[in-house]
Amino acid sequence: MADSSDSVSVDMETIYLGGKEHIIRTGRGSVSVIVYGDQEKPPLITYPDLALNHMLCFQGLFFCPEAASLLLHNFCVYHISPPGHELGAAAICSDDPIPSVDDLCDQILEVLNYFRAYILTLFAVRLPVNFLDYFRHIKRRFTAMFDRKLHFFISQMKYRDRVTGLILVSPLCKAPSWTEWFYNKLMSNLLYYYGMCGLLKECLLQRFFSKDVRGNPEIPESDIVQACRKLLDERQSINVWRYLQAIDKRHDITDGLKKLKCRTLIFVGDSSPFHSEALHMTGKLDRRYSALVEVQVCGSMVAEEQPHAMLIPMEYFLMGYGLYRPSQFTGSPRSPLSPSCIAPELLSPESMGLKLKPIKTRVSSHGE
């Protein structure tokens, strides 16, 4: 069990709008965790994409009043940053070993174990048989919302029992294709030799956003793209390079996806470079527990480009766990929890800008 000497807790309320930053020392280096909300509530974990942090990956969603009321009413949110991706991060020493995806997954587990020392009754950890009786009173598990890479923290079979639900945004489950490998190699060389140069930023922006928000000579860039450019200027190139090396050396986990029994909700923009990966992953998951939402005119960062497109699917997803929006918000005309106030035609996928691939259910005959 961790004690206070294992971490430094720094109050960052001014910067993080009510959240608190914890610097957790793990066996694979220190990691920043921003905690929002009441720690007596079930935990919800987030993890951002390459070169980003929680503020740019999830800010659009959490600043949406309906989403904030749903998530913060039901969860305590733990935003975990990849090593060296927190605000104000210093450059990681070049002599430090480059982490693998497995190392990053184990690092997340150490973070979760650290907070278990203080919120033990909020975990439903399936431990070895001799511990199960002692922990039989634990009812609640982690719900995870991962953006992109670290979904294999769950899909790697050794950790899947730590999570009851997954919300994945433009996820990957296969090893890099030759096209992605070449693209990653280009970015890796740019980072290594030139740092966060203009060409590299353009590569990352194409990775994150649809062309509609990136702008053109006639239409200026959107605010979120401009904010992303500013954030990228502040990144330590060596830290981004190290994270990219881990991503580029990931292995294929397709064969294990059928064993993943927690409910999984996948979002992907139809303009995302990783759209086909999300379709592939959805096809390999057990259809009884998974659903895909394709968001039209959107890139990889659905939570920033189209946060309102996530509301209805997320609310119905969380209803399966008995989680609802607080009653004072249900009267909102934009609240998906009051469908009787919404004309039925407005709930069509086309009206929401979505192409929904819902969970298919049927009554099995005894002869099957």
Automatic annotation (TrEMBL):
Signal peptide region: none
Top-level taxon: Eukaryota
A Pfam family of this chain: Ndr
Similarity comment text for this entry: Belongs to the NDRG family.
The name this protein goes by in its record: Pollen-specific protein SF21
